[in-house]
Amino acid sequence: MTLRAFRGHINRLAKSGSEIDTNKLSDAATTLNDKWVSQFETAASNIAAGDSNKSAGQVLQAIQSLKSSAKGGDLKDAKRKYVAAVSAIQNWVGASGVEGIRGL
């Protein structure tokens, strides 16, 4: 995965966080569409091995869970799930050795 592509995925996640923060859960659910998530999954699997592969799976699970909360309209749960998704990405970055990502 290129850093540019990864930053694009992070920007989408950050956008969903802003939407959740302003109680626009349906917008957040739209931002968390399956297209970029599946693109992230494909790219992450290309560089993931061992612990980073497990971490990549946790990121995808966290994003899907966040999307579900946003679709369900549960603001408090969506905020918790957003924090969990960001934490999962930070863990994956550490496990995979992807460096140079600003803003994490």
UniProtKB/TrEMBL annotation:
- Check the record and name the Pfam families matching this protein: MPH2 (PF20675)
Extract the InterPro entries matched here: MPH2, MPH2_C
Please give a single GO biological process term from the UniProt record: photosystem II repair
The Maintenance of Photosystem II under High light 2 C-terminal domain extends over 10-100
Q: Coiled-coil ranges per the record?
A: none
Q: Output the PANTHER family linked to this UniProt entry.
A: THYLAKOID LUMENAL 16.5 KDA PROTEIN, CHLOROPLASTIC
Please state what the protein is called.
Maintenance of Photosystem II under High light 2 C-terminal domain-containing protein
Q: Write down the species.
A: Symbiochloris irregularis
